[in-house]
TrEMBL record, chain A:
The chain crosses the membrane at residues 6-21, 33-51, 71-99, 135-159, 171-193, 213-233, 278-299, 306-327, 333-356, 372-393, 413-433, 454-475. Belongs to the complex I subunit 4 family. This is NADH-quinone oxidoreductase subunit M. The lineage of its organism: Bacteria, Bacillati, Actinomycetota, Actinomycetes, Micromonosporales. Its main location: membrane. It holds the Pfam family Proton_antipo_M. One of its GO terms (molecular function) is NADH dehydrogenase (ubiquinone) activity. It is found in: Endomembrane system; Membrane. One of its GO terms (cellular component) is membrane. GO terms for biological process: ATP synthesis coupled electron transport; electron transport coupled proton transport. InterPro entries: NADH_Q_OxRdtase_chainM/4 (IPR010227), NADH_UbQ_OxRdtase (IPR003918), ND/Mrp_TM (IPR001750).
TrEMBL record, chain B:
Its EC number is 7.1.1.-. Its main location: membrane. It comes from Catellatospora coxensis. The gene is nuoN_2. NDH-1 shuttles electrons from NADH, via FMN and iron-sulfur (Fe-S) centers, to quinones in the respiratory chain. The immediate electron acceptor for the enzyme in this species is believed to be a menaquinone. Couples the redox reaction to proton translocation (for every two electrons transferred, four hydrogen ions are translocated across the cytoplasmic membrane), and thus conserves the redox energy in a proton gradient. This is NADH-quinone oxidoreductase subunit N. The chain crosses the membrane at residues 12-37, 44-65, 85-104, 139-156, 162-182, 194-218, 238-263, 275-296, 308-327, 334-355, 361-382, 403-422, 442-467, 479-501. It is found in: Cell membrane; Endomembrane system; Membrane. Keywords: Cell membrane, Membrane, NAD, Quinone, Translocase, Transmembrane, Transmembrane helix, Transport. It catalyses: a quinone + NADH + 5 H(+)(in) = a quinol + NAD(+) + 4 H(+)(out).
Length: 513, 517
């Protein structure tokens, strides 16, 4: 079975079919999009089953000729890290489509276009994780911007037109700057690496120290902008604040992970020496990001911007986990990528439900909403707790792994990062308190939508995410089994012998309990 | 006098010359058509004749291509080198010319076509207003364009500086005239033509001066002898350096490289859009084809000397084109500055050197040519009562009214910006790859910087079309006639196909990148 090419192409074909639905038939477009996304989910499940956790590093390989003159191929393959990210996308997109059911109407723009863009985004995001050819990866990495740009610019109706234009252009330009720097690095790698784009072949190429460092920088800056790491993060709050909630969930939940995934897949194995050389800098940026973004998040007045900032703080943890260069921290970072997608995805979707009812994204426009919407407020609470890594919910396991993995090699960093957990409690609890607790804001009483609690559709959206957050909080083994071998393979070149530590499988399960 | 005055006639390889002979013949025929065919039928006759001539020439090129070898490439006493790279360039010019000629013939967008009937009538007079409204446009444009194409084909295959100069004039003079023939905005058009002519004449003079210096150094004007003298002569190289510098100025002027680019925005804006498309695509091919031949064949022994200088020019070109594009409010001027920046990217490929540099340049020229023709064709569609509405602010909200138009134009802009899945990406990758391969990494870094800056103006157009609200003055998008539609379709399709499946053309450009002297 050609799982990966089907998985990559299916959403793109789906996007085309949805795009051709007449504008006058929005319901048809929505249903078609939902069906396509469920088909993709089904293929994703089949891919997960076909993948053998103990097998070779890259599995389910496929390869087709593309540009023989350059040694570029349409080649697909996944390792455990890519597989869990693909599973995350395949799961999130149907939920996002369901959650955005009524979002596109508000924009007075073509509804089929919105859902076609969502599917196109899914296809290009999956493509970045399935490609085993650097040029193919670059292609998806760049093309991914286009659907997201239009989603933010055309359908972000929570903010005024000027603001969403600004956000869309900023998003595109920031990403393009990174993309073009990476292009220079890709070309350099191709020239110095023997005119091939095959990832497997390139891992065996020994680049000289100078070349390695420059190439590493080209890739790393692109990924750091995408992730985003401090100080490349300023586009994210704007984009996350302007995008419709569903799209923001995808933007922060999955698209940004392409950055951290890229570091794991491209920077570390291809340029191990340079990675070690730059690691202190990367860790420094990550730690600054954890503290700085958490502090800024506390001060945010806008709910969606607040959630965006919390994400930047979380990406700091992922960055620390990756560059600590221990197996525990590495596994923790990858697990964090999944859990963060679930938790922040849920948080964004629930915020979207609040915003849709209130018609405003400002924290001060809420207050005591919990009395009117008890169920929704409860889910908001769970999402918030997941975000601050409460034990028993999935993000705790990953955050804990990152911290103990880092502590064994770098105590000061682990200690400073722990402060981030305290700050996380501050911004999450304060956000929940100001929106759902306390005296009811009188303005809320006059709004009819504020009296409608969780609908069935919304229930279907949040249920799987909550279940997964709890299950993975107690029993992360199925995911860790897939992740661990891939992380070990990724880190072998950068972990120095004295830093080698046992694989985290056993300790993790205990940590979860 | 006892001397023998008999002259040995040089051997001429007629199969190799056939494409050019066909074109020059057809152009002369076109002049006769002007004299003898009734006015009403002229446009159709001229258009068909022009297209037939171009297609016939293309067929002749294709038929001759398999027979070309290193030994039979030179003809006409070393004055012409119809080698594989030369034939590729000729073919590229012909294909691009066919597509742009379709735009010349479009008459459904505007009553009487894009050209004025009589350019000499005083602008603004009663007579002028009448002819602008009613009279059918001049049909001399077709023979002029065919002459220009013939000249370009000669230009890229000349193995002799004197022939190259003659070819330069043959293709430049018709272009000067064509620029002056816009139906609307007559004064702009005349100004453009005059500027182009004066500066072009100046550049030609530089070329001629350089030629004389080189003759002084090498004692000959053909590339084989020049190459031999450059590598082996003990003469003082001062004449050589001055000569090559002046020669390069002449060629870089045509290629629109900074600091010889100042004519470009004015001329691109003032010329009829069909002519602009023709110039942007075909003249670029001709100018870079000739420049590459001069550098690769005549003066390759001087690589160390000219590469840093031309590198600085490439950097200037990329940065000036990109930075000034940011400030533009007129779409034609924006595309003009973008074409300047693109000349810089092409120079990066050329300076990369070797087979890879040449093949990347050839690929870029074809990809960019189709892209730019399609983009200018799109500009002809957005119209109001005064003709084309090219001011950026007027395009606000166009995506809401004409999503198909805006979608296609967005795709082309993404192509210019070098986003993957368009030919622009593959082309940029090819030239930058050649640059790094030739140890010109610093040029590539400036290229990346320039691409980043240049993305902003493109994005601004996209924002205007899609994200802005339509104003009251938003012009309408005309339904293109069959000719423009065909040109557009070809341009867009090539841009997409070369973006997704560039292999065949890449292989071809690699196979043919070989100049013979």
């Amino acid at each position: 079975m050609k799982y990966l090419s089907i998985l990559t192409l299916a959403p793109l074909i789906g996007a085309l079919t949805v795009a051709f639905v007449p504008r006058a038939k929005p319901e048809l477009a929505k249903r078609l999009a939902l069906i396509w996304s469920i088909v993709v989910l089904a293929v994703g499940v089949a891919t997960w089953v076909a993948y053998k956790p103990g097998g070779p590093r890259l599995q389910l390989q496929e390869s087709y000729t593309w540009i023989p003159a350059w040694g570029a191929k349409f080649s697909f393959a996944v390792d455990g890290i890519a597989l869990v990210m693909i599973a995350l996308i395949a799961l999130l997109v149907p939920l996002v489509i369901l959650a955005s059911w009524h979002d596109a109407e508000k924009s007075k723009r073509s509804v089929p276009a919105y859902f076609a863009l969502l599917l196109a985004l899914e296809g290009t995001m999956i493509g970045t994780f399935t490609s085993a050819d650097v040029l193919l990866f670059y292609l998806f990495f760049e093309v991914m911007l286009v659907p997201m740009y239009f989603i933010i610019g055309s359908f972000g109706t929570d903010v005024p037109a000027k603001q969403r234009q600004y956000a869309a252009v900023k998003f595109f330009l920031y990403s393009l700057v990174g993309g073009l720097l990476m292009l220079a690095a890709v070309i350099g790698m191709w020239v110095y690496g023997g005119h091939t784009f095959d990832w497997q072949t390139l891992t065996n190429v020994e680049f000289t120290t100078t070349v390695q460092r420059w190439l590493f920088l080209g890739f790393f800056i692109a990924f750091a902008i995408k992730a985003p790491f401090f100080p490349f993060h300023t586009w994210l709050p704007d984009a996350g604040g302007a995008a419709p909630a569903g799209a923001a969930a995808l933007l922060v939940g999955v698209m940004d992970k392409v950055g951290t995934f890229g570091i794991l897949r491209y920077c570390l194995p291809l340029f191990p020496e340079a990675s070690r050389w730059f690691a202190p800098w990367a860790i420094g940026l990550s730690v600054i990001g954890i503290i700085y973004a958490a502090l800024v998040a506390i001060g945010q007045k806008d709910l969606k911007r607040l959630v965006s900032y919390t994400s930047i703080a979380h990406f700091g943890f992922i960055g620390v986990g990756i560059f600590a260069f221990t197996y525990q921290a590495g596994s923790g970072a990858v697990l964090y990528m999944v859990n963060h997608g679930l938790a922040t995805g849920l948080l964004f979707l629930v915020v979207g439900m609040f915003v849709a009812r209130r018609g405003s994204t400002l924290v001060t426009d809420f207050g005591g909403a919990g009395k009117l919407l008890p169920l929704l407020a409860g889910i908001f609470f769970i999402a918030g707790m997941a975000s601050l890594a409460l034990p028993g919910l999935a993000p705790f396991v990953s955050e804990f792994l990152v911290l103990i993995g880092t502590f064994t090699v770098n105590k000061p960093v682990a200690v400073i990062a722990t402060i981030g957990i305290i700050l996380a409690a501050a911004y999450v609890l304060w956000m929940i308190q100001r929106t759902t607790q306390g005296n009811t804001n009188p303005a809320l009483l006059d709004l009819a939508p504020m009296k409608r609690d969780l609908s069935l559709r919304e229930g279907i959206v949040v249920a799987p995410l909550i279940v997964l957050l709890i299950v993975l909080g107690f029993y992360p083994k199925p995911v860790l089994d897939v992740i661990n071998p891939a992380v070990q393979a990724t880190l072998t070149d950068v972990v120095t012998p004295e830093r080698a530590d046992p694989a985290p499988a056993t300790s993790t399960v205990e940590a979860g309990k | 006098m006892g001397e023998d005055f008999s002259v040995n006639l040089p051997d001429l390889n007629y199969a190799a010359l056939a494409p050019m002979l066909i074109l020059f013949g057809a152009a002369c025929l076109g002049v006769l058509v002007e004299a003898f065919v009734p006015r009403r039928a002229r446009n159709a006759v001229q258009l068909v004749l022009g297209l037939l001539a171009l297609v016939a020439a293309l067929v002749a090129v294709l038929l001759h291509a398999p027979d070309v070898t290193d030994s039979n490439a030179l003809t006409g006493a070393l004055s012409l080198s119809i080698d594989q790279a030369g034939l590729f360039l000729q073919g590229a010019i012909l294909v691009l010319a066919i597509v742009s000629l379709l735009l010349f013939g479009e008459r459904t967008l505007e009553n009487g076509g894009p050209f004025v009937a009589q350019a000499a009538i005083t602008v603004g007079s009663e007579l002028d207003r009448r002819q602008a409204a009613k009279e059918s446009g001049a049909t001399e444009v077709y023979p002029l364009a065919i002459f220009a194409v013939g000249g370009m084909m000669l230009f890229v295959t000349s193995n002799n500086l004197l022939v190259m100069f003659v070819a330069l004039e043959v293709f430049s003079l018709p272009l000067y005239l064509l620029c002056a023939l816009a139906r609307r905005k007559r004064l702009l058009s005349q100004e453009a033509a005059l500027k182009y002519f004066l500066l072009g004449a100046y550049a030609s003079a530089f070329f001629l001066f350089g030629l004389a210096m080189i003759y002084g150094f090498a004692g000959a004007v053909d590339f084989r002898t020049i190459h031999a003298s450059v590598t082996g002569s003990t003469n003082s190289p001062i004449l050589l350096f001055i000569g090559l510098a002046m020669l390069s100025i002449g060629l870089l002027f045509k290629a629109a490289a900074a600091p010889f680019h100042v004519w470009t925005p004015d001329v691109y804006q003032g010329a009829p859009t069909a002519v602009t498309a023709f110039m942007a695509a075909c003249t670029k091919v001709a100018a870079f084809g000739a420049l590459a031949r001069v550098l690769y064949v005549g003066f390759d022994g001087l690589g160390w000397e000219f590469t840093p200088v031309l590198g600085v020019i490439a950097v200037l070109t990329m940065l000036i084109g990109a930075i000034l594009a940011v400030t533009q409010t007129d779409l034609k001027r924006l595309l003009a500055y973008s074409s300047i920046a693109n000349a810089g990217y092409l120079l990066v490929g050329v300076l990369g050197g070797g087979k890879q540099g040449l093949s990347s340049m050839l690929f870029y020229l074809v990809a960019y040519g189709f892209l730019v023709i399609a983009a200018f064709a799109m500009l002809t569609l957005v119209r109001d009562a005064d003709g084309e509405a090219t001011h950026l602010a007027r395009w606000a909200g166009l995506g809401r009214r004409s999503p198909l138009f805006a979608g296609v134009f967005t795709f082309l802009l993404l192509g210019f910006a070098g986003i993957p899945l368009t030919s622009g990406f593959v082309a940029k990758f090819a030239v930058f790859g050649a640059g790094i391969n030739g140890d010109q990494t610093w040029l590539v870094l400036f290229g990346v910087l320039s691409s980043i800056i240049l993305a902003f103006p493109y994005l601004r157009v996209v924002v205007m079309m899609w994200l802005s609200e339509p104003g009251e003055t938003t012009p309408s998008v005309s339904i293109p006639g069959m000719l423009t539609s065909t040109a557009l379709m070809i341009g867009v399709l090539v841009t997409l196909v070369l973006g997704v499946w560039p292999s065949p053309l890449l292989d071809l450009t690699t196979d043919v990148s070989n100049f013979i002297r």
